[in-house]
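Page 37, continued from 36.
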């Protein structure tokens, strides 16, 4: 099963508040159920494809924001034609078929439009807002999601897909997703943001970048014990236990339950 690139965990690390989540019952990194549904043209199709990335959108035909996103996705369909990316749209079957067909024609999408009988799949995921775009990796796990936004949404979807295809680097994705966000606010805020990102990187097993990011956290606020824990865990993952253990001890003195620090000590056999 593929590993979700660390850049696609960036928003989960830095965003805050319940409004950031797209689904009530599905989080980034969890498997997306590959359901089969009837389509607008009378066939049956699955939500996910067998390529390196799958993009799916939940929309409403009479909603301006949904039509905007569908039009942007039509451009991406053309751009990624011939590449291992699967596109699908999902709409509740309570939407009149004529309205759905009109929306599809206006936007110019070619992807299959799946009809969610009784809004069962909507309910299973707990879709919070419309439209919302989900992107799954080759292993069928949710790699990212995007709510509607007037600016930059198409670019954000593009770089997420290109990263899963291996066409661009983490740094290129990060430049689009969160330009300069981590440097906003005072030193304590900057330190916490970098610490959160470092811990997200640890979950993705990207220890080298986690070390770099944890050091940025400590440059902003050397007193943040949790950042010492993130740094120690990253160093442990890189096999640098002599450097890791002092950092881990700092973190565990402040919080004996620090999961990253405890895992770091375990990695070092302590």
């Amino acid at each position: 099963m593929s590993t979700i690139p660390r850049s696609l965990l960036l928003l989960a690390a830095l965003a805050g508040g319940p409004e950031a989540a797209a689904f009530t019952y599905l989080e980034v990194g969890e498997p997306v159920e590959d359901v089969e549904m009837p389509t607008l043209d009378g066939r049956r199709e699955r939500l996910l494809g067998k390529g390196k990335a799958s993009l799916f959108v939940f929309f409403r035909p009479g909603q301006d924001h949904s039509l905007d996103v569908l039009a942007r996705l039509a451009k991406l369909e053309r751009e990624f034609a011939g590449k291992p990316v699967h596109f699908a749209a999902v709409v509740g079957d309570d939407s009149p078929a004529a309205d759905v067909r009109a929306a599809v024609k206006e936007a110019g999408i070619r992807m299959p439009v799946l009809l969610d009988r009784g809004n069962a799949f909507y309910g299973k995921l707990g879709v919070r807002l419309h439209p919302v775009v989900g992107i799954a990796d080759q292993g069928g796990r949710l790699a990212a999601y995007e709510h509607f936004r007037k600016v930059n949404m198409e670019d954000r979807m593009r770089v997420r897909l290109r990263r899963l295809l291996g066409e661009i680097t983490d740094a290129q994705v990060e430049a689009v997703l969160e330009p300069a966000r981590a440097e906003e606010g005072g030193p304590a805020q900057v330190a916490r943001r970098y610490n959160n990102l470092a811990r997200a990187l640890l979950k993705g097993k990207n220890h080298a970048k986690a070390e770099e990011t944890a050091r940025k956290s400590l440059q902003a606020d050397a007193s943040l014990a949790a950042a010492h824990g993130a740094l120690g865990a990253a160093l442990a993952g890189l096999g640098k236990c002599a450097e890791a253990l002092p950092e881990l001890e700092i973190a565990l003195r402040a919080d004996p339950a620090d999961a990253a620090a405890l895992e770091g000590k375990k990695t070092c056999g302590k």
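Residues 208 and 234 are 7 Å apart (CA to CA). Flag for discussion at group meeting. The beta strands are 36-38, 44-46, 53-58, 85-92, 113-116, 132-137, 142-147.
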